[in-house]
Amino acid sequence: SSALKTRDIEKVIFGGDILISEDGDQCTAGFWVRQDNFTYLVTAGHCALNNTHTPDGNVRFYHDTNPPYFVGEMTYYKYQEVDYGFILVDNPEILVIPNIKNVRNDTCRELFIIGTVDIDTINSHICIAGAFSYVSCGKVIAINTVVGIRGFGNFEGVIVTDIVSDIGDSGGPAFQFKDRFPRFVYLAGMLIAGDNNYSTIEPLNKILDDDMIPVRYNPILFDFDTPP
């Protein structure tokens, strides 16, 4: 199909892919959003810490491929009280596709973001996609709670899960699967911290401004199966 051929020649960044700063620090690509006429890739704001800044105060990020290619500059980020960063896409070769990498599943290697969801129930199923832990799922053990993260202070209104995550997974998307349809998912937030016991997720309402819209799967633009 013409859509698939386009993807072959253009650069694609999925949620769960590795991002690398100019100084070599690694984080995980989260999800795409649009605001006005601009497109941003969202990841964790603390990924910009201790990195070389441009004269404008921004941090340059690359897709960690061989060789890496430039994505854009993180033009705005926070890492205390809330944790998010917005990378303004500045590479016309990058094709914005709202998919999540799922490389450990041979039958469904991409997950399609079809909408968003608010996590409001303890014990509900939730998943993350980290660059190093890949897609991992577990249960919600706390919602709208306060978590203290060493060196960064307290974060209010976050979600705690029993998912194990690794260094470098920060910024990865958190999501729920659409019932009975394992390739379609609802975006729920972003991973901001984790260890061998728990992972902390920042919900979308703590990340996005009112006029920011997550990019979602559109079957008109891409030749994939239409979600039910």
TrEMBL record:
<dbReference type="InterPro" id="IPR009003">
    <property type="entry name" value="Peptidase_S1_PA"/>
</dbReference>
<protein>
    <submittedName>
        <fullName>10352_t:CDS:1</fullName>
    </submittedName>
</protein>
<dbReference type="InterPro" id="IPR043504">
    <property type="entry name" value="Peptidase_S1_PA_chymotrypsin"/>
</dbReference>
